[in-house]
Design brief:
This protein has 577 residues and is of the alpha+beta class. It has 21 helices and 13 strands. It is globular, with a radius of gyration of 40 Å.
């Protein structure tokens, strides 16, 4: 009986709640259940926002920052504004003196006068000498126009990368000669419709470059970028040199991306400052002569009046209600004369623009003095510190030139020499030759030559730096340095001229340690007679001596220094006495 009663009461209770909810809904009120258990009013998107970064919170100060911070791939950004950024870079380099100075400085520092030069090291001296000889002859005139050498082409690469963010060069043969043909990024384009071709570059399904579509532009004033016949060049024949900063980036971006506005602001500010200086050189008067009838007459004078006009008027530049006042002329004035005031330049302009120029130099990774030519506040310490910070940046850019420009070009040149010029290689492949190339970087000027030279000397004497590496530090090859010094010493001996002792002794030591001199050549320089066993170098004799000493002592191997070390036992001491 009790279960039926409880069940009936429960049913009546549910009916009562349903009726109550219906009445409440009809009256516009919320049901009783919702009033007892209200839901959370906090949106899901705001949960945890109090734990986010301050920069991501929308405030009055961060509103513009958040509106500009959008999720975009690098190539999408380039497709939207890459051409405009390239045009801005061209304009600034053409019109802005500091932008042009930055580009010129980077080209001279990264490439230098002689360029980044390959030195072949295959292990075969005959093949190395032949490759070096052939490359030197080809590099004298290696571009398609027959006007530029190897270093000039590399400087052109750096200038293009600095101005537009990327450099392009086609590799091919003209009249049987291998040549390099640089072209501008404005020549890239595609007139058709193909989803695999983006901004003039064709990609495969993996995102690898397949071909470049280039429009041929006629030289001269009638040539228009992007207008003309279009050709398709396979990607293996094109050098596309750029610094890749994002995984989704396929086109280059110059450092003008973060400095163009500041450079242009400085450009406009300089013009405004010049206008203020010009305005300060003039004087103006407001002359009141019966204002009720004639109004006010403006009078100006200073640097701008026509000096040939004897009466002080310039009818071609002054309106009817104005007159020119010459310097040093006293005129009868009217009842009231009032000077016109101009806002003269202040001393804060230089400090403000200096801070802007420092930010520009920091973005480009070059010293402030190099970007502006201002050395008024520079000294040896500050310049050396700036140079040490900039050198890693230069080295990265030099490696980019080698990795994406010089090394593929040299590889194509070797293939051309083997296929068409009769170059014979054996027991080594072309990729192995290219991987063994030693690249000679341009010489960097020393900020403090005395300190730099002493540092190198100390490191070489302590054995921390070999002599070839010291030569590389100054942009030279050790073999060339030793050969030049050898010729200098031979010339001095033939001419009867005595070189300074320090010069001779230092070079003499380097020649001996490098194995550049035989024993008889050393004896000849020391004014001694030759010997029968003097056809070997000192390193060769050291190896043979170490082997013989190892046999005597009954060990597998022994160094020359250990073998020549005197025994410190008591018997030997007594025997020596």
């Amino acid at each position: 009986m009790m279960p039926e009663i409880i069940k009936a009461l429960s049913m009546f209770s549910r009916i009562a709640r349903a009726v109550s909810a219906g009445r409440a809904a009809f009256a516009g009120a919320k049901p009783e259940r919702e009033k007892r258990a209200p839901r959370s009013q906090t949106p899901l998107a705001t949960i945890g926002r109090e734990r986010s970064w301050d920069a991501t919170k929308s405030t009055r100060l961060t509103g513009k920052l958040l509106s500009n911070a959008k999720t975009q791939f690098a190539d999408a950004i380039w497709s939207d504004g890459g051409e405009r950024l390239r045009n801005i870079g061209r304009y600034l380099v053409r019109e802005h003196p500091e932008a042009a100075a930055i580009v010129d400085y980077l080209a001279s520092v990264i490439v230098g006068r002689d360029g980044i030069w390959p030195r072949f090291d295959t292990g075969d001296e005959t093949l190395d000498a032949e490759l070096n000889r052939r490359f030197s002859a080809w590099a004298e005139n290696c571009d398609a126009r027959g006007e530029e050498d190897w270093a000039s082409v590399q400087r052109l690469w750096v200038r293009e990368i600095s101005a537009t963010g990327e450099a392009f060069t086609e590799m091919g043969a003209i009249d049987g000669a291998f040549v390099l043909s640089p072209f501008e990024s404005e020549n890239l384009g595609f007139f058709g419709s193909n989803s695999n071709i983006i901004n003039g570059i064709e990609y495969d399904e993996r995102g690898r470059k397949v071909a470049y579509y280039v429009t041929l532009t006629k030289p001269g004033p009638l040539g228009v970028p992007g207008m003309g016949p279009q050709i398709r060049i396979p990607a293996e024949r094109v050098l596309h040199i750029m610094m890749r900063n994002r995984p989704s980036q396929f086109r280059g971006e110059s450092a003008f991306d973060a400095t163009a506005i500041t450079l242009y602001d400085i450009f406009v500010a300089d013009r405004a400052e010049m206008d203020l200086l010009r305005a300060a050189a003039y004087f103006g008067l407001i002359i009141r002569t019966n204002p009720e009838q004639f109004g006010e007459i403006g009078a100006t004078g200073g640097l701008g009046e026509d000096e040939t006009n004897s009466d002080g008027y310039a009818p071609d530049t002054v309106s009817d209600d104005e007159m020119m006042i010459e310097r040093g002329v006293i005129r009868a004035m009217a009842d009231e004369v009032k000077a016109v005031e101009t806002n003269n330049p202040t001393g804060e302009y230089q400090s403000f623009t200096r801070a802007l120029r420092q930010a520009i130099a920091a973005r480009w990774g070059i010293p402030y003095s190099a970007a502006t030519g201002d050395t008024s506040q520079a000294n040896y310490s500050s310049e050396r510190a700036a140079e040490m910070h900039a050198r890693p940046r230069y080295q990265c850019q030099q490696w980019m030139i080698i990795r994406k420009g010089a090394r593929p070009a040299v590889k194509k040149w070797i293939e051309h020499e083997v296929a068409r010029k009769g170059l014979r290689i054996s027991n080594i492949t072309i990729p192995e030759i290219v991987s063994g190339i030693h690249w000679r970087l341009p010489h960097r000027e020393w900020v403090d030559p005395g300190a730099e030279a002493q540092k190198l000397k100390t490191m070489v004497e302590l054995g921390l730096l070999p002599f070839p590496a010291a030569c590389e530090y100054v942009g030279r090859d050790a073999r060339d340095v030793l050969a030049e010094h050898k010729r200098a010493l031979d010339l001095a001996e033939a001419s009867g001229v005595s070189l300074p002792p320090a010069y001779s002794s230092t070079l003499f030591q380097y020649h001996i340690e490098a194995g550049a001199l035989t024993i008889n050549e050393i004896r000849k320089w020391l004014k001694l007679e030759p010997v029968e066993w003097g056809d070997k170098t000192v390193p060769e004799w050291r190896l043979e001596l170490a082997a013989e000493l190892a046999k005597i002592q009954g060990v597998a191997s022994v160094s020359v220094q250990d073998a020549l070390q005197p025994n410190q036992s008591g018997d030997n001491k007594e025997g020596g006495q």
